[in-house]
Amino acid sequence: MAAANKGRRPSPGSQGYPGRALAVIVIALVALTGGMFLSGNTTPRLGIDLAGGVSITLSAKADQGNAVTKSNMNTAVGIINRRVNGLGVSEAEVQTQGSNNIIVNIPKGTNAAQAEQQVGTTAQLAFRQVLTAADGNPATAAPNPSASPSASGGTTPKPSGTPSATGTPKATGSTTSSPQGRAVTDALKSNVNKAPTPTPTATPSNPATTPGAGAADLSIPADLQAKLDKLDCTDPTQRTAASKGTKPGDKVVACGQQGDQWIKYALGPTLIDGKRVSGASANFDSQQGNGWVVNLTFDSKGASQFTKVTGDLASQAQPNNQFAIDLDGNVVSAPSVSQALPGGSAQISGSFTQKSAEDLANVLKYGSLPLAFSIQDTTTVSPALGGEQLRGGLIAGAVGLVLVVLYMFAYYRGLSLVALASLVVSGALTYTIMCLLGEAIGFALNLPAVCGAIVAIGITADSFIVFFERIRDELREGRSLQPAVARGWPRARRTILVSDFVSFLAAAVLFTVTVGKVQGFAFTLGLTTVLDVVVVFLFTKPLMTILARRPFFAQGHKWSGLDPKALGVQAPLRRSVRHNRPTETKEA
C-alpha cells in the first residue's frame, strides 16, 4: 500500500498544494480590479432610491387582440424608451420585469407627473402634410438631399430621382440610414437656407386644388410661424413641448432628424390617423434593387383616405407633396408622393439598413402601444433623501462588520485574522463585480441591495465559524492542528454547502417571484452567497492549511484561538516509534 501511494501526487488545491488555490483567487481579484479601472466603472451604479428620481411600474394586459408576449413587451419597451428620452434625462432605464411588467426608472428628480404622462398614455401616430421645413440646428450645414424615401403602391418603382414616364407611383427626395429613416427633399434644402414666411410655401400647380376650392389650406398662421422660428430641435425640452396640447385638426410644428442634422417642420392637420395602419413590415427588395424597404397597409377606411391624400399630395410642389409620419411630435419619416396610390398599400423605399427599416416598420405598426398598460406604482425620491439612505446603509454595514470582527476576535483571537482577511477578499470581489455589472447588465445598487450585502456579512462569517468549530472539535479529540484541519474540512464543507444552497435557493425564488426593488435584495444575496463559497474554498481553507504549519498556531499559543487549555484538552502526546529487534537464541 505504501508503495502504491508513494508515486501519487496530491491534487491541486488539496492539503498539499494550498498555494495554488490562493493564486487563483489573487488572479481573479487582479483581473476584476483591472477590468474595473480599464472600463472606468470604479463605483457601482446607483438605483433610483439612492440617486434620486422617479420609478414607475407598468402592468400590461392584452389589447385589441394583441396578447402579452415577449415580442410585444419588447416593442412596448422600445416605444416607451423613445418617450422617456424625449424628457431629456440621462441614464433612464426601461426594462421588463417578469412576464407582464415594465419598470421605468428616470433618475435625478424628473417631474413625476410629466413622466407618468409620457409612459402611461397611448402614443399619437398621424400622417400630416408638410407645409414647410427649416434647419433645426442653425449651427450646422444643411443636410444632403441626395436621396429621400419614396412611397409607392402596388408595384415597386424604379429608384430614379423623377417620376417614370409610365406614371408609376414614385416619390423622390432623399433618405438617410438613421434609425427611423428620416428624410429631407430637394425643396426642403432650399427652404433650409431661406427664412420661412407666413405665406403659403408653394402654390399648387392644379388650380382645382387651391385653398378655398376644397384643397387643404397650405398657409402658415403668424403664431405658428413664430413657434417655428423659435423652435430649437437640439433642445429635448422644446421638442417635447412643441406638440403638447395639440389636436388632430391643428397645424403644428415638429422636429425630425437626418443623421446628426435636425430639421424642423410646419405640418398641416392630421390627414390619416395612425390607427388606420393595419400592418407594416420591413423587407429586402432584391428584384428592383431598392434594398431594404418598408411596406405598409391600411384598413378599409384608411385605404380610401390614403388614396385621396396621395392624389392631392401628388399635385403639389415640393415640399407640399410630402406626408410626414408624426409620432408624438417627432417626424420619423417624410416621404414624398408623385402619384395617387390606390389599393390601401404602399411602400417606402430609400437607403435603409435592416435596422432602420425594422424600426420604421415598428413605428408604423405600433405607433400606439401594442398592449394596454396600467400604472401600478410610482415612487419619487429626491437625491438628498437617496444620499441619506445610502449613508445610513453604509453606516449600518460598517457597524455590523465591526461587531462581527469584535466578536470573532474575542472568541477566536488569532483565528479572527483569518476571518477578517476572508471578509476583505469577499468584499473586494463583491465590489468589483457590482461595478462591472452596472455597465454589463445595467445592475443598479439600490437600498434593498445594500441590505442584502449587509446580511451577507453574517452568512460569510457563519461559514468561518462552522470551519473553525470543526477544527476545534478535532483538537478536542486529541489530534494535532494539521490533521485537525485536514479532517475537519470535509465535515465543515458539507455543512457550508448545504447552508449556502438554502440561502441561494431562497434568493433565487425571491428574485423570480418579486418585481422591482426587492429583486435588488435577492440578486445581491444570491451573488454574495456564491462568493462566500468561492472565498471559503479558495482562500479561507488554503490559508488555514498554511497557518497550521506555523508554530504560533500549531503549538496552540494562548492568543491563537487554538489553546488546548482553553479548549479543555491536553496537548497531544508525541508517540515514539519503537523498533523491535529480533532476539537471539543461544544454542545449548
Description:
Residues 1-14, 140-215, 572-580 and 583-588 have low confidence and may be disordered. The protein is built from 17 helices and 13 strands. The two termini are 42 Å apart. The protein is of the alpha+beta class and 588 residues long. The protein folds into 3 domains: 18-45 and 382-567, Multidrug efflux transporter AcrB transmembrane domain (Multidrug efflux transporter AcrB transmembrane fold); 53-119 and 374-379, Alpha-Beta Plaits, CATH 3.30.70; 124-368, Gyrase A, domain 2, CATH 3.30.1360. Helix 2 (18-39) runs parallel beside helix 12 (415-440) and helix 12 (415-440) packs antiparallel against helix 15. 45% of the residues lie in helices and 17% in strands. The chain has a 5-stranded mixed β-barrel, surrounded by 4 helices. A 4-stranded antiparallel sheet has the order 2-3-1-13. A 4-stranded antiparallel sheet has the order 5-12-9-8. Strand 6 and strand 7 form a beta hairpin.
Concise structural overview:
With 588 residues, the protein is of the alpha+beta class. It is built from 17 helices and 13 strands.
The Rg value, from CA coordinates, equals 36 Å
- Arithmetic mean of pLDDT: 74
Number of E-state strands:
13
The rough form would be described as elongated
